[in-house]
Amino acid sequence: MPHALTILLLAAGASSRMRGGDKLLETVAGQPLLSHLLQQAQATCFDVRVTVPALTHPRAALIGPAQCIPVPDAAEGMGASIRAGIRALPAMIDGVMILPADMPELTTADLRQLARHFTGPDGPILRATGQDNSGAPRPGHPVLFPRRCFYALQTLKGDEGARRALLGETVTEITLPGQHALIDLDTPAAWSAWRAGRAQT
């Protein structure tokens, strides 16, 4: 029987490095990045939830209301977003795949690849990896946490993401193509460089 998984997109950040812009509304494949990544996640046929700063935020208009998770204390950092997301998971979910919503190269196939290695609610954590510019493997996102980790995820604080929940854990690395697991775009310069690189391929 397939495991019950939720994909949790973290989209409650402030885009503070975008000089007034919103990185999740930047255009990718003819649509806002958040819409693009949501589409990739929904195509897996897993449950998908998205954290947003508030239900009145422009990002929320891109997401179905049943999937939106408001994070009133989003200014605290990624820890608040993860806490809110874990609390809102459907009952009896076996695992949650957490990924920041600013990763334009992740595909449905990538998400399915990670899920394919999931062994259930008591199994190891799975972490996607990619190749950095030197060709060396480097851990990235998404990260798939089994249900046994949910309590630890609900105690996270600050902006360090889920690093503390990984401490002392067995983590199985799953290789994704190229830099799919590594490319996240936080600044106008990063967006310009990424687009320039794609134009040359």
Defining key terms:
alpha/beta, 23% strand, single chain, 9 strands
Describe it.
This protein has 201 residues and is α/β, with parallel strands linked by helices. Helices cover 24% and strands 23% of the residues. The chain contains 6 helices and 9 strands. The chain has helices at 33-42, 78-87, 108-116, 150-153, 163-166, 188-199; strands at residues 5-10, 27-28, 31-32, 47-52, 68-70, 95-100, 125-131, 137-146, 171-175. A 7-stranded mixed β-sheet has the order 5-4-1-6-8-7-9, sandwiched between helices. It has a two-stranded antiparallel ribbon with strand order 2-3. Strand 7 (125-131) and strand 8 form a beta hairpin. It is globular and about 45 Å long. The N and C termini lie far apart (41 Å).
Short characterization:
The protein has helices at residues 33-42, 78-87, 108-116, 150-153, 163-166, 188-199; strands spanning 5-10, 27-28, 31-32, 47-52, 68-70, 95-100, 125-131, 137-146, 171-175. It is of the alpha/beta class. The longest helix has 12 residues, at 188-199.
Q: What is the N-to-C succession of helices and strands?
A: EEEHEEHEHEEHHEH
Q: Report the helical percentage.
A: 10-25%
Strand content: 15-25%
Question: What coarse outline follows from CA principal-axis ratios?
Answer: globular
- pLDDT averaged residue by residue: 92
- Widest sheet, order of strands: 5-4-1-6-8-7-9
Radius of gyration: 16 Å
Distance between the termini: 41 Å
What's the number of helices? 6
Class by SSE composition: alpha/beta
DSSP summary, beta strand count: 9
Query: Biggest sheet, in brief?
Result: 7 strands, mixed
Spans of at least 5 consecutive residues whose pLDDT stays below 50 are none
